[in-house]
Structures are given as structure tokens and as C-alpha cells.
Design brief:
Number of strands: 0
Distance between the termini: 15 Å
Mean pLDDT: 88
Largest sheet: none
Strand content: under 5%
Number of helices: 15
Helix content: over 70%
């Protein structure tokens, strides 16, 4: 398998996952702001922090209003953090690897990109926003289902899985980080009063609410939510599951032993305990370090398989 083809398949997995997560995140955050009073102080710019685009947003010239934030995250074609950009890059990568991926995946992503591009600008202004975002999530899941359900489990499949799992783990850590920061940066009385709503939104942002209630307990508690989305071994959107998936795919690829050290450090960080005594600052530091470890794994993948020489 050519290194450039492997890289394109890897980024197909990342951009498809990023597009789905962005649509899911904006959808749930919109609902959260409808549920919370203004006095809690949760703002639209928190979404920019979640996706790690604060500096890009500042330089873009957009203002911190609902419409500008959503235009930046949904419809701005020049923003690497936007849903439109992720869909365009996923489409380009699938287009250039059509000999490795199922034909249906190209047809579906091409149709989704052109359809979403014409509707996301209106969705950013509030027109059918929930409907458009729900459809984007469903169609991204459909494309992922075609890819993972009809590909032979050989090298292209494993590079696709690496991209999906890394992107999913990174987004989950960012969502936890921002909600945890709310306990530090906002009125503690108000945050504790509406804490259940905040943590419920975390679960819904990663489609974990039903599974949490089914396998943990009816009451939504911050530390238990964090433990679930970090270390649950049976839930496929937990960070632990993503790391397990990365390790399995790396083991199936040639020269996979080159990733032993960064994966070992990532696993050690993931195993850091989060208990009732852990402060918001401690959890935030854990998430920041997890994101750095995930970044190290990404660079190790690029060095080992994608870069010449």
C-alpha cells in the first residue's frame, strides 16, 4: 500500500469523524443553551474552545455572537474547524482513494457534501438547524457503516480505524475539559445547581446518555460521567475503547512496534485515577495531557507510515 494512499485513508477516517462530532456538538450545545438560564454564563465561544480554534476564530474577524460562531463552525469554507471544511476534505480523500474504498462511500460522501454546503449557511442562522445537523450525523454514520461494514480488514481498514479512533478520543477529551473548566471559571453556586444539565449534555454530545443510564445509574454525576466516557471498556465512544482500537489496528500493520512508546505513554495517562477527591483543575490537566499524548500518537503514525524516508 502506497504511503500517500494510506495517509488519505487515515484522514478520511479523521475528517468523517470530525464532521460527525462537530454536527453532534453544535446540536447538543444549542439544546444546552435553551435549557440553561443566562445567569449561568455559558457562552457560544465555549464551542470554539472545545474544537481548539480560539486563535483562528480571533484572527477571522468574526464576533462572539451566536450567528458568527455557528457560521465559523458550520459554514465557513476557509475554517479548518468547520463542518463544511471537514466534509470537503473527507470527500477529496475518498475521491482519491476510490480503488481502496467501497464505491458507495464515494457516492454518499459526494452527495452529503453538496447537500450540506447549500444548507449549513442557513442552519448557522437558525433555519432548520436541528434538522440539518441531525441529518449530517445520520449520514456520516451511514458512510462509516458502509466503510467499516464492507471493507476487508486489511491495511486500508486499519488506517481508517486509526483516524476514526484518534479523532473520537481527542474530541471526547476536549468536551470533558471545557465542561470541567466551567466549574473553575463560573459562579460555583450556579454551576453546581445546573451541573446535572451540563454533564447530561456531555453524555449526549458523545451519544452516551442512554448507555450511562443503563449500565451506571439513573443519576448523572460529574465524576462518574468522566469515569464512564474515559474508561468504560464496553462503550465504543469512550476514550478507553478508542485506545484499544488504536492498539489493535497498529498491531495488524507492518512496523507497528514503532508506536509502542507513544501508545504506552497514552495508556499510562488514561489509567490515571479520577475519583471523588479529584479537583476540577486536576481533571483539566489530565485532559490536556491526554490531548498531547494523542497528538504524539498521530505524529508517530505520520513518521512511521506517511513521511518519505
Amino acid at each position: 500500500m502506497l504511503s500517500r494512499a494510506a495517509e488519505r485513508v487515515y484522514w478520511t477516517g479523521r475528517y468523517l469523524e470530525r464532521a460527525e462530532n462537530t454536527a453532534r456538538l453544535v446540536q447538543q450545545y444549542s439544546q444546552l443553551l435553551l435549557d440553561l438560564p443566562e445567569e449561568v454564563g455559558v457562552e457560544w465561544t465555549e464551542l470554539i474552545r472545545i474544537v481548539g480554534a480560539a486563535e483562528d476564530f480571533r484572527q477571522s474577524g468574526f464576533e462572539s455572537t451566536e450567528t458568527d460562531v455557528l457560521r465559523f463552525l458550520l459554514a465557513e469554507s476557509d475554517s479548518a474547524s468547520s463542518l463544511t471544511f471537514s466534509l470537503r476534505m473527507a470527500r477529496e480523500n475518498v475521491r482519491n482513494t476510490r480503488d481502496l474504498l467501497p464505491q458507495e462511500s464515494w457516492e454518499n460522501i459526494n452527495e452529503l457534501y453538496h447537500d450540506a454546503r447549500s444548507r449549513l449557511t442557513l442552519a448557522a442562522r437558525g433555519e432548520n438547524r436541528f434538522e440539518v445537523l441531525s441529518e449530517c450525523v445520520a449520514r456520516c454514520q451511514q458512510i462509516n457503516g458502509v466503510l467499516t461494514g464492507t471493507m476487508s480488514h486489511l491495511s486500508p481498514y486499519h488506517f481508517l480505524t486509526l483516524g476514526q479512533a484518534l479523532e473520537r478520543a481527542d474530541m471526547t477529551s476536549r468536551i470533558i475539559d471545557v465542561v470541567t473548566a466551567a466549574y473553575t471559571n463560573h459562579d460555583e453556586r450556579l454551576v453546581r445547581r445546573y451541573g446535572s444539565t451540563l454533564w447530561t449534555n456531555v453524555l449526549k454530545s458523545v451519544s452516551a446518555f442512554q448507555m450511562y443510564r443503563q449500565y451506571c445509574q439513573p443519576q448523572v454525576e460529574g465524576r462518574k460521567v468522566i469515569a464512564f466516557v474515559l474508561n468504560d471498556t464496553a462503550f465504543p465512544r469512550s476514550i478507553c475503547w478508542c485506545v484499544n482500537s488504536i492498539e489493535k489496528s497498529v498491531a495488524e500493520l507492518p512496523r507497528g512496534d514503532a508506536l509502542e512508546e507513544p501508545l504506552k505513554k497514552l495508556r499510562a495517562q488514561l489509567d490515571s485515577p479520577v475519583d471523588a477527591d479529584s479537583s476540577a483543575e486536576t481533571i483539566s490537566e489530565l485532559m490536556d495531557t491526554l490531548q498531547k499524548r494523542l497528538g504524539d500518537v498521530h505524529f508517530a503514525i505520520a513518521d512511521n507510515w506517511f513521511l518519505p524516508g
